[in-house]
Specification:
Strand 5 and strand 6 (198-211) form a beta hairpin. Helix content is 24%, strand content 33%. It has 7 helices and 8 strands, in the order H-H-E-E-E-E-H-H-H-H-E-E-E-E-H.
């Protein structure tokens, strides 16, 4: 439900100012949002515990041309409810991308639509000792891919831009992915382990792209919190073996 005391323009301005990643929204999305006439906001899913909370909101906008546009807001922070100062806001214009972002947080990704009470059902395994064999284990037999033709070249650009590893794919890969017109995202691995004196999350995603010449190629994205200060880090690789080796190296196992 929309706030009757907040105009659509004020609502959008607040969302874009709060979101840490608003610069990732495509120019076409921002331009279309500039024509929004009305909006409606609903809670899509939530997870609250003593140590952590997250909420996902769906914001739908009616545009001047009669079409609708949806933004997904992911809000999370420490504690059951957190404080306004401690909340992190992220904004996405693609449901798949907000699912990817949610999966890297404590509690993981809801297993489908949110239950009636709005509580998300976590999919992370917790409380397990770190085992390098688990990180290097072969993934389950994949299900057939269903490619979604949805601004895939821009999706590839954003995946490569957020990669922090020095050995990330280079310009040749970036040029090739500019010819992608459909993509499919699969979570291959996701687990939370104790690394040293604290818990760290590891998630591996395959971003598969269908190119204009009919060929396929993939980017392998590692999301983890095995950093000195516990912050989230994204690494991207050209192949699965290198991505899994990178995950193993982050655990400190030789």
């Amino acid at each position: 439900m929309s706030d009757p005391y907040e105009t659509t323009e004020q609502h959008l301005d607040r969302l874009l100012r709060c979101a840490l990643n608003s610069f990732d929204l495509s120019d076409s999305t921002v331009d279309r949002l500039g024509t929004a006439l009305a909006h409606s906001s609903t809670l899509h899913s939530s997870l609250h515990s003593a140590d952590f909370h997250r909420e996902t909101y769906r914001h739908t906008y009616l545009l001047a041309d009669g079409s609708a546009l949806t933004l997904w807001e992911l809000m999370h922070g420490a504690g059951r409810h957190g404080t306004a100062e401690g909340r992190v806001h992220e904004l996405y214009d693609d449901e798949t991308e907000v699912q990817v972002a949610t999966a890297r947080l404590p509690g993981g990704l809801p297993e489908g639509p949110a239950p009636a009470d709005g509580d998300a059902r976590p999919v992370w395994d917790t409380g397990l000792d770190l085992d390098s064999a688990a990180l290097m284990a072969a993934p389950p037999v994949p299900t057939p891919r269903t490619y979604a033709p949805d601004n895939s070249a821009d999706h590839a650009r954003r995946v490569l831009r957020r990669a922090e590893n020095a050995d990330r794919p280079g310009e040749a890969t970036a040029r090739r992915l500019r010819a992608s017109f459909a993509h499919h995202i699969t979570q291959v691995f996701g687990r939370q382990y104790r690394v040293g004196t604290r818990e760290a999350g590891f998630t591996l995603y395959e971003h598969a792209f269908l190119l204009l010449d009919g060929s396929e190629t993939s980017l392998w994205e590692v999301e983890h919190t095995a950093t000195p200060d516990g912050r989230h880090m994204c690494e991207v690789y050209d192949d699965e073996d290198t991505a899994r080796a990178a995950m193993e190296s982050r655990t400190g196992i030789c």
